Amino acid sequence: MDEDHSNDGFLEIGKADRSVWLMKCPVVVAKSWKSQAASSSDSQPVAKVVLSLDPLQPDDPSSLQFTMEMAGSETGRIPKSYSLNMFKDFVPMCVFSEASQDRLAMEGKVEHKFDMKPHEENIEEYGRLCRERTNKSMIKNRQIQVIDNDRGVHMRPMPGMVGLISSNPKDKKKTTPVKQTEVKRTRRDRGELEDIMFKLFERQPNWALKQLVQETDQPAQFLKEILNELCVYNKRGTNQGTYELKPEYKKSVEDTGAE
User: Fold this and answer.
1) What would the pLDDT profile of 203-227 be if each residue is shown by its tens digit?
2) Which long-range contacts (CB under 8 A, 24 or more apart) does 187-193 make?
């Protein structure tokens, strides 16, 4: 490491005991917040969290309800009201930050984890946004181009090329088959891939991992991470070895398909 970094090897822990919340939000919301932060020089609130509880059962955790309202008027077609599902059963985590001059700091410990989803009155508009994004992501950028010079000049082997096939029949028998290398697949955006997965499960309810790899052209390990969050793996029965959506996601897909 460079010697001129005076803070190398040190971690600021002044805020280590502070409680923080970890929230998983839709891609459209994250992009909206980033654009607002980039366009405004001042620190402006991007949303408001409302906590509701039953006064008759203040000690009951199930009576707590968290909702979020998007701030600002430049949200466009993005739904403005969201419900936050709180989880306490998760792996202990901490939040770190890296400032200028490689200064590292611990910002706090994760106390609650939330999943953010639109309210029922906004689910139709949100489903429309997801379908539009899925359709855009499935447009192929590759095009067929007609070559004007059809005499094969550009396809003629040039000097120095390795592995040229000889015209001698005896030499052809000596050629060894070339081992095919594993195809490397590029990961898509996580939210974009989730939309594609919902689209596939609208087509049929059960999919094997191999089928999904062929349909999405994504790495198998990356697909498993998504499937563990969205689906249930059938270990027995008629659909053994396949994935199907969890009940909460299956209902939203059915509602979206009914439109």
Assistant:
1) 999 999 999 999 998 998 989 998 9
2) 187/218, 187/219, 187/222, 188/137, 188/216, 188/218, 189/27, 190/27, 190/226, 191/26, 191/27, 191/133, 192/27, 192/133, 192/134, 192/137, 193/218, 193/222, 193/226
Q: Could you tell me which of 16, 87, 99, 133 has the C-alpha nearest to residue 229? A: 87
Q: Which two tokens stand for residue 46?
A: 């991007």
Residue positions counted in the chain = 259
Can you say whether the dihedral through the CA atoms of 167, 170, 172, 175 is positive or negative? negative
Q: 65-70 and 11-12 as β-strands: parallel, antiparallel, unpaired?
A: unpaired
Pick from 146-150, 157-161, 177-181: least confident: 177-181
- Which residues lie across from 112 on neighbouring strands? 21
- The pairing of strands 19-24 and 94-98 is unpaired
Strand partners, 70: 47
- Are 86 and 52 spatial neighbours (Cβ–Cβ below 8 Å)? no
Hey, which residues does 68 pair with through a beta bridge?
Answer: 49, 82
Question: For residues 122, 127, 133 and 136, what is the CA-based torsion angle, rounded to 10 degrees?
Answer: -140
Mean pLDDT score of the chain, rounded to an integer? 76
Question: Taking a C-beta distance cutoff of 8 angstroms, is the pair 208, 241 a contact?
Answer: yes
DSSP H helices, the chain, are 27-39, 123-137, 169-174, 190-203, 209-216, 220-230, 247-257
Residues in Cβ contact with 109 at an 8 Å cutoff, skipping those fewer than 6 apart: 16, 17, 18, 19, 20, 92, 93, 94, 95
CA distance 192 to 136: 10
